[in-house]
Design brief:
Layout (H helix, E strand, L loop, with lengths): L1 E3 L2 E3 L20 E2 L4 H11 L3 E5 L5 E6 H7 L7 H4 L6 E2 L4 H11 L3 E5 L5 E6 H8 L9 H4 L13 H11 L3 E6 L2 E7 H11 L13 H6 L12 E2 L5 H11 L3 E6 L2 E7 H10 L2 E3 L2 E3 L7 H16 L5 E11 L4 E10 L3 E8 L2 H33 L1
Parallel strand pairs: 3-4, 6-7, 11-12
Antiparallel strand pairs: 1-15, 2-14, 4-5, 7-8, 9-10, 12-13, 16-17, 17-18
Helix pairs in contact: 4-11, 5-10, 5-11, 12-13
Amino acid sequence: MVIIGITFLRPNMDYNLMLSELIQESPVVVNAKDRLSSIIPKMRELRIHTAPVVNDSSKLIGVIDYRDLLRRKAPLGSRASSVMLPPHSISLNSDIDNVVRKFYETRLREYPVIDNNGKLIGILTRSRLLTAIKDQLPANAKVGDYMTKPVLTITPSDNVAKARWLMIKHGISRLPVVDGNRLVGVVSLTDLIEKIYYVSMPRRSRRGDFSGEEEFLAAPVSSIMTTQVYSIGSDKPLTKAVDLMVSKGVTGLIVTDDGGVVGVLSGSDVLKAYMDSKKIILPIQARIEINNDAKPLIEKVINNHLEKISKLVNVVDFKVDIRARDSGKRYEVTVRLKDDKELHTATAEDRDPVSAIREAMDKIMQSIIKNVSKARDTKRRSRIQE
């Protein structure tokens, strides 16, 4: 049996930091009737990725996710009400450890904060959270202990399509650009999606030098990479990495040793370090032996789906069972996920265990989306009747 660890937090009774000390006024607050033509430019200018949508009573009714809008290529004429996501949020009385867990699970950079009546109070950024928990990181923790490795890189002459494919395939948000052994730039997934969005717009509103998406994807990485790159050594204290990320306003650092790239450290990696001193392992039980090549792929599929699901519901319990059938020729996967309101179960079979897991997780995802949409429609009808 293979055990894949999933981290859940145990409340930290010795750490009394109050959430109210960390929240700030949201730079962008959206009304349901606002159009994307006014929302997207503000979010882009302020580098905001999550904007709360409120009604006339300041109650949170949804969120606008910047990267989600760009990926879906939502028309600029769309109203917020037609493209907003369910209102994932943090309650003002939340325990800091649970807040860390939410940020880690969803990979979000900002979270709306609400009071007991669902009214928007402000927003909490991952940057402020990192600063708050910095002194609670494991003693003597080094960058190299928590950086993502081995690191994927790309060259300046590689095309943009390859960079996008690598990031999507491996579930990463940034790629160091290297010329030989020298770090010369970085490409982020958000920047790529943003540029694709604008080059895909009608010519009269298009921004940039590319005539369309096809030309953009064929362009060399050197034409769109960011040359201002912040790096840090693997032997540096993790607290120093937090200070650098916060002061420079970046979400990750390239880790270099002797001039060569050896890893990438993100804000989520720092949250993982914080959780290490408090973790409870809730295992995903696999009833077959999985080879070392398949295990990271299985973890990636599960974590990518959980990241999306955690934005919609609060995950209370989660388990996966994998069983061999027909002498190992096929695999049966059963996924059980419990949220605050319901237990979701899905099964799938395939010759490839990774494909079977992906199919089962997709079914769970669709079940949750259906429930969330149904609940949203019910609330909408109730408001109309009132």
